[in-house]
Description:
This protein is mainly alpha-helical.
Amino acid sequence: MSLKKEDVKKIARLSRIKVEEQEYEHxxxxxxxxxxxxxxxxxxxxxxxxxxxxxDTSVMFERPDAVTAGRIVDxxxxxxxxxxxxxxxxxxxxx
Length: 95
């Protein structure tokens, strides 16, 4: 895939990037070299390479689902400037 000046203009417009007229050809060349590099990477056969990161699901640590610090609503609400019905009370905001 080869990018032309018109493609770079479209990309700049879509990304809201201001590009001077004389820079389009230079940027197209840079983007084309990046695309060539990506093509080189995709051409490499990696089917025989073992994955570096394997997920080991054989050992999974589980802990009991138990409440350890419950019934502290009053302590928490003591820090609030205002509360009602065991909840923080905040002013209504409407735009």
